[in-house]
Design a protein that fits this description.
About 50% of the residues lie in helices and about 10% in strands. It has about 400 residues and is an alpha/beta fold. The structure holds nicotinamide-adenine-dinucleotide.
Length: about 400
């Protein structure tokens, strides 16, 4: 058996109705909380509810509601100013990956010199363990898994660069995963966020950091998404399917926290940095068919698993034959959830194909892919994803 490490420090509080425990949980970490959210109307009743839960537990709350999807260095700076003004001793992210990641970035920026961008994963000095503010996460998408990861993805608009803080200090202390909070998600957010779960689970299986524990969680997450994402797209009020998606999201988050992602995510981050209007999951959906065609014969067992989870009739064929059909399987699945499209369809300028290919090689994710792309390969991958 392959050696592996598995590390997880976030306490997971999972289940319908459990947001009610937020006051008791947050008050263990501080009495002055900055709540970090987007300003979206469907979530306003939830924000008011959480504020009341916190106030009832004796926690003084300031509300920073300026997070934008694909949060930026400006988002983090503005939230950090508010955290400092409020003398916050705990940061609560309520929302999707954007809000939870912004909360983590603020937990660093509000307690350190400089900006969150100065503490990206490859920069020195790293955040100081005695300073980083504790983070509690309440997830409302299924999703990014950010509620259980040590990652905060952030975009530097001026540099058109999307990168990440990556440090065990920013694992949320507690993740509250209450599937009822996902009932308000429109299908336009449910589909790309749900596909992101699939991608986290799958890429963690083909990453060199994978191991028996990650594989166990990843396979379960993939099967749950394939079964339940179509259900929640047909009926967004299906609580049972929402619960399964929230569980899949949490499992897949545990997978990336331990093993990491590969080529499609590295390319997806480049798309997000250069074209911030493209949702994270949407960028992955656009890139997956090309990346599958490129990689399938280099990780036959894993692509065979993917193909069979999408098409159980492949159980009786060889792994090679199943892996060969992974491209068709993923394309068909993406069509069924309305996400089969090309980069041209999200208004990427055609003359930036080479620039996007180069940007896709800035983060090291592509190097963890079973087949490592050269710059020429990367240009071909971007072209395929552009014209598809
Ligand atoms: P998001 O947080 O950007 O949310 C998308 C939209 O849906 C927002 O407008 C949000 O307000 C709205 N929304 C969220 N929950 C809702 C609900 N219950 N009802 C109605 N509307 C709701 O989307 P996301 O995909 O969860 O997060 C994307 C961000 O997370 C990207 O920046 C991505 O790069 C990052 N990410 C982080 C990690 C990590 O480990 N930290 C992993 C993957 C992706």
């Amino acid at each position: 058996m392959k050696n592996f490490n598995y590390h997880q420090s976030t306490e997971i509080v999972f289940g319908t109705g459990r947001v009610a425990e937020a006051g008791e949980i947050v008050s263990k970490y501080g009495k002055r909380c900055l709540m970090v959210t987007t300003p979206d109307a469907p979530l306003l009743p939830l924000y008011e509810r959480v504020k009341k839960i916190l106030l009832d537990a004796g926690v003084a709350v300031a509300h920073f509601n300026g997070v934008i999807p694909n949060p930026t260095t400006e988002t983090s700076a503005e939230g950090s100013r508010m955290a400092i003004e409020h003398k916050a001793d705990v940061i609560l992210g309520v929302g999707g990956g954007s809000s939870m990641d912004a909360a983590k970035a603020i937990a660093v920026e509000a307690s350190h010199e400089g900006s969150a961008w100065d503490y990206l994963f490859y920069k020195e000095p790293a955040p100081d363990s005695s300073k980083v503010l504790p983070v509690v996460a309440i997830s409302t998408t299924s999703g990014t898994g950010s509620q259980v990861t040590q990652v905060s993805v952030i975009t530097n608009t001026a540099e058109r660069d999307k990168s990440a803080l990556y440090n065990p200090l920013i694992f949320p202390k507690v993740a509250i995963v209450d599937p009822e909070l996902m009932l308000t998600l429109p299908a336009s957010v449910t589909a790309p966020t749900g596909f992101d779960v699939f991608c986290h689970a799958f890429e963690s299986m083909i990453n060199p950091g994978t191991g028996a524990y990650v594989e166990l969680l990843a396979k379960e997450a993939i099967n749950l998404v394939v079964e339940n994402l179509p259900k929640v797209l047909i009926n967004g009020s299906d609580l049972d399917a929402r619960e399964k998606m929230a569980w899949a999201d949490t499992l897949a988050g545990l997978c990336i926290a331990s093993a990491g992602v590969t080529l499609p995510h590295g390319m997806g981050m480049a798309v997000g940095g250069m074209y911030p209007h493209v949702a994270h999951g949407e960028s992955l959906a656009i890139l997956y068919p090309a990346c599958t065609r490129f990689t399938a014969s280099y990780a036959v067992e894993q692509y065979a698993f993917m193909a069979r989870s999408l098409n159980p009739s492949l159980e009786s064929v060889s792994d090679q034959e199943a892996a060969d059909s992974a491209y068709d399987g993923i394309s068909k699945f993406l069509k069924s959830i309305g996400l089969f499209k090309g980069l041209k369809d999200v208004n990427m300028p055609e003359d930036e194909i080479e620039a996007l290919a180069r940007q896709s090689m800035v983060l090291p994710d592509y190097q963890g892919n079973p087949r490592v792309a050269t710059e020429a390969d990367m240009i071909e991958l971007v072209k395929e994803a552009y014209y598809q």
